[in-house]
Amino acid sequence: MKNHSTRVMLAAEHPEVRYFLKGVVESQDKAVIVGQAENANRALMLAKNLRPDVALIDCHLPHIFGNDMLPLSRVGGLDTAQAISEEVPGTRIILLNSLDHNALSDMSLTSEVMALLSGNGMGVALPASPSGLVFASVAARTRVNFRQRLSETSDKVILFSGLGILGGLGMMLTIILAGAGMFVTAAGAAGILAGLAGKLAVSLWSDKNRI
Amino acid sequence: MAINQETSEPGKPISDMSIKRGLKECLVFSALSDAELERVASSVLEKRYEAGSVLFHEGDKAEELLVLLEGKVAVQMSLPGAEPGQSRRITVDVVGANEAVGWSAIVEPNIYTFTGVCLQSVKALSVSGPKLRWLLNNDAKIGYEVYRGLIKVVASRLDDTRRVLVSERSLLSRH
């Protein structure tokens, strides 16, 4: 463990969210993960036992009971943050209130949260909420996820293939019907223009789907 | 934890058109005509709250009904804890844009039955409880339409609470 590290606990329902948050925390020089929880009950238990400096909690955290995996509430992040705040008062809590689970690979945490993580978890002046918790959002540069990217690529391939086939057929018909060099040149120019128009259409389509 | 602190900017006057649009998109007021919305709008102010602010506490006198324009509010109820004198909060619902919270302001005995905590920065239309109650008592058409819309909100909230409580009973019976 790094010397004088900020000891951080993570709580998020989905493994990929915990993986993402772990990467963000570990990218900080003076922060180390000491525990991870997938539900509210385990988060509270870990916080009591490990007494971390910082608890990073996703708002969408289920209350789960025993082996039945019975969710009491899917939005137990706030409840958990309040309970930890009362029962482990030394722990600073960051509640992630707008985490977009579909764009994990493109996200970065807000600078305030990074400051808290890198500042030894204590003594860093942050705009505290009236509840004493730090409410943090995750900034997403884009919402295009893997499935959308795949669909976008397929659409591009289909569009360019279609244009190519049409251009080729046009050239063949021109040569067969007219048999003159001038017509071939005109058909080639038309093909180039069609290609450029297609490229522009794809580029506009792609931009429209980004936020 | 200092959860009791409430911070909000003082009510801001906004245009009647914006207020009416905000009210119209909320289920409680959606059935009202333009003229009826105008009468409700006369008792509305715009308010903003930081994330973490407590809008109202369970058991407090209900003085305002809030229609959210932006942000999310967690609706929480207190449950007795394992130790005597202890209690813990359970989020039973999350209310978002175009939804109403604080309906106790127009239902007797006008005591909030839940606590509302802002999960994000919130912009809301605050409808004065006493003024709205007066309007509902004195205009039967507005009263009927608003209470009809309200019933839908209450039924939905009741269903969420019931599901959480059924799970809680299961939890308590196994310990």
Describe the structure.
The complex is a heterodimer of chains A (211) and B (175). Chain A is an alpha/beta fold and 211 residues long. Chain A has 6 helices and 8 strands. Chain A has helices spanning 15-26, 40-50, 77-87, 111-118, 146-178, 181-208; strands spanning 6-11, 31-37, 54-58, 64-65, 70-71, 92-98, 107-109, 134-140. In chain A, the strands form 2 sheets. A 6-stranded mixed β-sheet of chain A has the order 2-1-3-6-8-7, with helices on both faces. A two-stranded antiparallel ribbon of chain A has the order 4-5. In chain A, helix 1 links the parallel strand 1 (6-11) and strand 2 (31-37). Residues 65-70, 141-146 and 205-211 of chain A have low confidence and may be disordered. Chain B is an alpha+beta fold and 175 residues long. Helix content of chain B is 35%, strand content 26%. Chain B has a 4-stranded antiparallel β-sheet with strand order 1-8-3-6. A 4-stranded antiparallel β-sheet of chain B has the order 2-7-4-5, with helices on one face. In chain B, helix 1 (16-24) crosses helix 2 and helix 3 crosses helix 4. Chain B is globular and about 55 Å long. The model of chain B is unreliable at 1-9 (pLDDT under 50). Chains A and B meet through strand 5, helix 3 and strand 6 of A and strand 5 and helix 4 of B.
